[in-house]
UniProtKB/TrEMBL annotation:
Organism (species): Cryobacterium sandaracinum
InterPro entries tied to this protein: CorA_cytoplasmic_dom (IPR045861), CorA_TM1_TM2 (IPR045863), MgTranspt_CorA/ZnTranspt_ZntB (IPR002523)
Domain of life: Bacteria
Topology within the bilayer: Multi-pass membrane protein
Spans traversing the lipid bilayer: 268-286, 298-318
Subcellular location: Cell membrane
Full protein name: Magnesium transporter
UniProt record similarity statement: Belongs to the CorA metal ion transporter (MIT) (TC 1.A.35) family.
Keywords, ordered alphabetically: Cell membrane, Membrane, Transmembrane, Transmembrane helix, Transport
UniProt keyword annotation of Transport present: yes
SUPFAM superfamilies on file: CorA soluble domain-like, Magnesium transport protein CorA, transmembrane region
């Protein structure tokens, strides 16, 4: 099991990190101290022990251990419980990969619980790059985490946008395999549905965090959380737009296939009409009764001339009307 990560901020400065879980209470006893604890794939014993020290609700602990929740923000008497997902689009696989993270938010502590695939180093780097905001305590830590998640949504949706544009360019190229375009459009729609399922509930989550009655945000952090909320709205609108584009690509691909089938049917019908001319003439001259030119070279030459002449005439007429 991975070693838990810990940090302690005091009066806006990082004073200690990577201390044992047993010392969390000691650090919280310090005046003005804020503690971050990270657990990757934790055992039930460690999380329950930490929950006892911080007074975390048993239902929230159960949700953190299962890690199969929808994005949400639950409110308990002494703390908040946040469930969210990171999202990443793999160009090679053309699929969106998500990783869940559970967050316990108290007045002076932030506890994160996640699987091994979650990139927490980027969050720590974001905290270190904005250390001047650390005096805002838990709100500072929570903002850095949410900002990282939403930026990941932007990167994933931007990559999906590029895939949609590339698919649109391929749609009308000559020689494009329509089956490949159709499969790619289905994969894009599947990825967009996945990321939409992650992004859509985050609007309500961040909007709830902006409420004053939670007593979480200080005046200085309010605009930062509002900025995160605006980004969530933008990326959600972008996702909806891409869904419409992916649907339009699929419909356009089906329309193109229908048009090509009509063109093929038209051309086949035109050639069938041309072939009907020699069939009719040879059928007439193949009768077993005497007729003008019967059993004479004149009959052969006249039938051949009719076949060539009428077939050429039909070909010219059909070609001029763009039927073949």
């Amino acid at each position: 099991m991975p070693t838990p990560r810990t940090r302690c901020y005091r009066d806006g400065s990082l004073v200690d990190e990577d201390f044992p879980l047993a010392e969390v209470s000691e650090h919280l006893a310090l005046s003005g101290a804020v503690v971050w604890v990270d657990l990757a794939d934790p055992g039930e014993e460690d999380l329950v022990s930490l929950a006892g020290e911080l007074g975390l609700h048993e239902l929230a602990v159960e949700d953190a251990l299962t890690l199969r929740q929808r994005p949400k923000l639950d409110r308990y008497p002494d703390h908040l419980f946040l469930s969210a997902y990171s999202a990443e689009f793999g160009v090679a696989t053309a699929q969106v990969t998500t990783h869940e993270i559970a967050v316990f938010i108290t007045d002076r502590a932030l506890v994160t619980v996640h699987t091994e695939g979650f990139d927490l180093e980027a969050v720590v780097a974001r905290w270190d790059s904005a250390s001047d905001l650390a005096r805002n305590g838990v709100a500072f830590l929570l903002h850095g985490l949410l900002d990282h998640l939403v930026d990941g949504y932007f990167d994933a949706v931007e990559a999906l946008d590029e895939q949609v544009e590339e698919l649109e360019d391929q749609l009308f190229l000559p020689g494009t395999k329509q089956e490949a375009v159709q499969r790619a459009s289905f994969e894009l729609r599947k990825s967009l549905v996945t990321i939409r399922r992650v992004i859509l509930p985050m609007r309500e989550v961040v909007n709830t965090l902006l409420r004053r009655d939670l007593h979480l945000l200080r005046d200085e952090m309010g605009p930062y959380f509002q900025d995160v909320y605006d980004h969530v709205l933008r990326v959600m609108e972008w996702t909806e737009s891409l869904r419409d584009q992916a649907t339009a690509i699929l419909e356009a691909n089906l329309a193109i296939q229908g048009n090509r089938l009509n063109v093929i049917t038209k051309k086949v019908t035109g050639y069938a009409a041309i072939i009907a001319v020699p069939t009719a003439i040879t059928g007439f001259y193949g009768q077993n009764v005497p007729y003008p030119g019967f059993a004479q070279p004149l009959g052969y030459y006249s039938s051949a001339a009719l076949i060539v002449g009428l077939s050429a005439l039909l070909y010219v007429l059909f070609k001029r009307n763009d039927w073949i």
